[in-house]
Design goal:
Helix content is 68%, strand content 0%. The protein contains 9 helices and no strands.
């Protein structure tokens, strides 16, 4: 599964082009994490988080930071096979949309547009797949700053 996802992770970036050192580093970190946390293993989406880290640091540091992110933000709970925590996040987001933007929520409901259809990747990839890289980098900076200070 990991080998299938590697070429799909930031294919537009030179660092992650076919068989480049970025792809090898990405594989190494993801494989190491799947061994480190066998309960979670590998889940699609995490490659984009790791990929973003690899754009900023060597793979050893990226692994350590990824482990810390998974623990500090309870991201590992999102990636567990049953994805129960992700379901809870989708429910919480839907409640917030209902509370803050009831017309939008009603429109989404009328269209059969479930929260998970647009928001799952926000949580599973920390916005790395839905925002321009520069903005996603800024969000990652905030996540990392929070991890360091806590």
């Amino acid at each position: 599964v990991i080998l299938r996802d590697i070429p799909r992770t930031y294919p537009e970036l030179e660092f992650f082009k076919d068989n480049g050192r970025g792809q090898q580093a990405l594989f190494n970190v993801i494989k190491a994490y799947s061994i480190h946390d066998s309960e979670v293993g590998y889940c699609q989406g995490s490659a984009f988080i790791v990929g973003q880290l690899l754009l900023q640091m060597p793979e050893e540091e990226a692994f350590a930071v990824f482990v810390r992110l998974m623990e500090a933000y309870r991201l590992r709970e999102l990636f567990k096979p049953a994805m129960t925590e992700l379901g809870l996040c989708m429910f919480q987001l839907e409640c917030l949309v209902q509370e803050q933007m009831p017309d939008l929520c009603a429109h989404f409901n009328n269209m059969g547009f479930d929260t998970s259809m647009y928001a799952s990747s926000w949580f599973l990839a920390l916005f790395t797949t839905t925002l321009p890289l520069e903005l996603a980098n800024r969000i990652m900076d905030i996540f990392l700053a929070e991890v360091i200070t806590n």
